[in-house]
Automatic annotation (TrEMBL), chains A, B, C, D:
Domain of life assignment: Bacteria
A GO cellular component annotation in the UniProt record: cytoplasm
Protein name per its UniProtKB record: Dibenzothiophene monooxygenase
EC numbers, comma separated: 1.14.14.21
Keywords: Flavoprotein, FMN, Monooxygenase, Nucleotide-binding, Oxidoreductase
């Protein structure tokens, strides 16, 4: 699939780039980008072939995400949420399902969601809450059983694509047993209200608004069919929660270098030694981050959740975030004041690039975990904060 | 004077800060900030006492500028332009005037401009042009003698406070002799048209728009009364062209630390070691940059234009610019995603702070000049580009 | 005094520099440097004029230390120990003495020690111990009262100038009451044995060997004349324990820039842009660190031990240490492989410069304390480790 | 082969590490390490299987070099020279030989040299000269034809393993035609004299002494059998001249992290947040550099000398050199003063690690070339200095 999807991503990126300034200015959702993604079949990227998708590996996903981000990082970030949902659903093998006690009808429900994605539906993630961030252990959104299903009530924040997605992966806590956290796929519609709070420094086009839930869903929308699987899945697939952002920020860094080179060549400034030194070091750092993301992804495909895989995931998150921010800051300095005008790609990329280190797990947290591991410790046990 | 002016600046800063978000959002000029500055008598800061001003030294100016910038860096940057004009005019001693051949009537005209400033007029600078930047040697705006005065024609860019100042210091080239560059003080009004082009990453409230000139001015608006003094003045007072920005960016860096501390304390995050390390290193770097600016300013007052003074001026410009950008980026990372929301001070300060290294002389140029000097060379002779 | 002592330091520095390579190679003590210091009267630098000394302020001391370090950082580090002892003794005013309950005979004994210094004796510090570092609260060296004096027994490490000093300031714990830590001035001689353990990456000429004590001293060698003052003095004069190193490392950084400039000019490499950028940024950083040290010192003279003074002391320690290491690493890279040959000043300075951040309080600890203070906390209360 | 050779390297590394301190202290050649390498058959690593060697690819070589460097970087650097000679000789395919006009007897001679290597001979490189560095275009060592062979006369510097190798690859200029530079394989023995000049900051055990040549060699020791091939080979195989060092410095960086972790755990300091942050960031940076070296090597095997391959080679050289220096400096700071004692692995690694950026092409030169390429230029044409 790589070839097909990767080519599609490369074909779409310039179209995204052409629209990026407008969406950044207005904070508007890149509706046309998503129409393009649907048309190119990329909503089915992570859907198994048997269900009509492209059956991409995680490594293939990261390559696609980087290319999309070279067009518009915000579009790639939202797409990442959809890829996370479909990728995590698709990664539940029969063995795993059996081990977790997932009933057959839940697998059938899962397949229906994935088939719908392959046919053009897309999902976002409603996980974070004000005050608790992305920590599953501190959620306040509650659910309880109803006749024939579930009722969810609570508020989410940083929900990328809010108001545009067809459905949302929602993490909630059982009203009956506070220790039980489950995940639901909630369709857009009545009971799901968007409060337009997103107005950010960077990645402005993600529409990562607040989402208020007071909604009933059918029984089969409990993912996995049994309660309490949310944390287990997080432990098994930290790459989706931590590192899939990384691929996006590599694309942002590369876009910044390309935009700077174009800007500097247009002004005949390519001969300045200081300019060359900045672009040269930016190029090397970005190339390195890209390889680390690819290596992390390769290992995720081979041994998801393994100790060594997780270290690569943290390295990817750390290096992609810090590299994007440093690269964008440096090449903007090389390009000069004329590139700080709103509407100039570098002006936007400088802001977008700063956001990578801030997504959970932040760069500082990744550095802490990696340090613990380098010292022979266990981040789960020795970390200064709970990982989830 | 310091005490009075510095206290006034400290008193005004919180008022500027309270208005900063709105002006940043809209790119509107901080009209109320300037009314406050007028009312506090700060338009006369650099005007000699004999002419009704406060007679501040350059060192006193930098202290005031830093305090103003803790409120709003954009306001301080525009004020810097006014201080540059009045400071440079006020610094022309009788000895210097005699050496340059400045006639008495020109000194009288100069005094009228300074008195007007002390009474509430303020001036901006219209120097840069598209394509040539701030290099005097490459200007295209032309002037010629008319009956009873001069006529100027051309276009300027990056003119801070355009449309709000009472007058503009305009550098122009003689239509008769291309090698002659002179400076005029052009009153706002007919023949001076603002084209609202300023829409920038940071320092958005400076209204640094384009200015189109097709205007006649009285004879006495030729500064110095003899043609061709522009370059001489630039050589004598490089601090006003290069380093007075520096004080502003120290204020921006300090404002970022303060905003981060407030944000982190409000969220009970002050105990995180990574947060403390970021704020501690930011504090040390900012304190150092502030001392370097103060030392440069002290030497400017003692020996303006001297070789060693100039090295301190470049050090001040280099360190203020790089420190502000690095400090703002680091403490924003410490503060986290919630501080990236538009309207949050750190969101604005992160963008404002990036601009310091880009003002001429850029950080890379300052580093080059300092390197030449450290190697025993002469930046004027050995630099890779003409200094003016 | 400054002029005299500073001129002496400048005069001696080239002589120290000429001997530095040999002492670095052999790890031998710079005996001739210390003869020069004695002859120049610099052992009395911190001794009050009334006792025959030069009565230097802390600020004057730091200026002298930086100049000495431009010659040989190791010599300056050892001299720093002597200056600490004499400076701290000299700083005990009559008011302070009264407040601490220091009897008159102790002041007389103190005066005898200072007079001896003015006449050519010099003292080192034997504070640190293996395992507990420089923390007073964790010492194991013990003392007890004897007929007519005290007996001390224990082992010290990192005792600069061991085997060459005329006396040692020794911190020890009362055998009777573990909570009481006192300081003694122990003369070199029987019962004081040097174990030559010092063989270090950098600052090799300091002879910072281990010192084994099993020695009786007269009653008047208990500093202050009453037991238990060690911690009080540390609290009052943290600059001597934390920041007097800083001045030395500014000198090391400046020496590295000078050596690199000489090396590059000799090879006609001063025109390379990358070389110039490295030297320019190194120059600015070093100039900044020097100002911070001077400002810290000025405040130490004005308000020793004050909260704001201490912040400047930590800034000085942090910036001098990190700047020296980064500057030396960068200019050595500019100078190239030919400067890595043993005996080349840059080869030594690169190793010497790395040591500054490691002296207590380390750069990481200073950053933590500064961060706590920037966040409105109190490093004594909120720090992750006891300060003494 | 990888498995066998890589296992051998891993097996030998601890033995090298155990001997490293002594050779570093004395600047003595690691004779026993080389006996181990011979015994393990690693002198034949780059020799084609048909000639009795292991037939390793460049990628396999870099993996082996990194492992050897985890034991002793100096040993790995000398081994790198042998690998360069045998690797470059082995890489001359029949097609290339034909294109270059290499006669059959020269290929036979080449095969004899490679067979000898597989049987335990090892070769070093005598390329650099004082004043001209490693630039082929500026050599002064001259050769001329004699009856039955060639006579070479001149002096080389930085010849790793001088006095220990069985033969030296010598670049020399034709006495008849200055534009012709050729390479010879000169056997150790009469006419080849070692002047022990190597006494360096780091990589002290390489014995990179000066080599004086006044020696006659048989006709078949002209590599390639025709004169003037030196520059062609350099153009074709820049990886051997520029990037094979990179793998060594990745090993040095990893060794520093491992040594720091061991040191910190032994002192119960693994829980300090600043320590963890340093080790975590060091780990990520080193992992990234290792991937970049591996990617460069993979491309060298696929498309040696291609434009894109060369960019990866420069990235590898740049990142390995800067990463090793920064990692060693940071983890030494984490480990503290007790790790600066001579004989401690970190003390040596800190010095060894600084050397990577200084080997040609230096980090600054690589950054310049990468910048030119990122800007769409051609380093060969636009670089500030000739590449060879």
């Amino acid at each position: 699939m790589t070839v097909h999807a990767l080519e599609a991503a490369r074909r779409l990126a310039p179209r995204f780039a052409a629209r990026a300034a407008e969406h950044d200015r207005d904070g508007s959702f890149p509706v046309d980008d998503f129409a393009d993604l649907r048309e190119a079949g990329l909503f089915g990227l992570m859907v198994p072939r048997a269900l009509g998708g492209l059956g991409a590996t995680f490594a293939e996903y990261t390559a696609v995400a980087t290319e999309l981000a070279r067009g518009n990082g915000a579009t790639a970030l939202v797409f990442n949420m959809h890829a996370s949902v479909t990728g995590a659903l698709g990664a539940v093998t029969e063995e795993l399902a059996e081990a977790l006690g997932v009933p057959d009808e839940a697998l059938a429900a899962r397949d229906r969601l994935l088939s719908a994605a392959a046919q053009g539906s897309w999902y976002s993630v409603a996980m974070s809450e004000r005050g608790s961030g992305a920590r599953l252990s501190q959620l306040t959104t509650a659910y309880e059983a109803t006749d024939g299903g579930w009722h969810l009530k609570g508020s989410k924040t940083f929900c990328s694509g809010a108001g545009h997605a067809d459905g949302y992966l929602v993490a909630a806590r059982s009203a009956v047993d506070q220790s039980v956290v489950s995940q639901f796929l909630v369709a857009a519609g009545d009971g799901v209200t968007v409060e337009p709070t997103w107005d950010s420094l960077g990645m402005r086009a993600t529409s990562s608004h607040d989402l208020h839930l007071d909604v009933s869903v059918p029984a089969d929308r409990l993912l996995g069919g049994v309660e309490g699987l949310a944390l287990v899945v997080a432990q098994l697939m930290p790459h989706w929660l931590v590192a899939s952002y990384a691929a996006v920020y590599v694309g942002v860094a590369r876009a910044a270098i390309d935009a700077a080179a174009e800007h500097l060549n247009a002004r005949n400034l390519a001969g300045l030694p200081a300019v060359r030194a900045r672009l040269g070091r930016a190029d090397a750092a970005t190339a390195a981050a890209q390889l680390v993301v690819a290596e992390a992804a390769r290992r995720v495909d081979e041994a998801p959740g393994d100790e060594e895989t997780n270290r690569w995931v943290w390295r990817a998150k750390l290096l992609a975030g810090t590299t994007a921010a440093e690269v964008a800051a440096s090449v903007l300095e090389a390009a000069g004041t004329s590139a700080t005008r709103r509407g100039h790609p570098l002006e936007r990329l400088y802001r977008d690039a700063r956001c990578g280190s801030l997504h959970p797990a932040t760069s500082d947290v990744c550095a802490d975990w990696l340090g613990i591991a380098a010292l022979g410790g266990d981040p789960d046990r020795d970390g200064s904060a709970p990982r989830w």
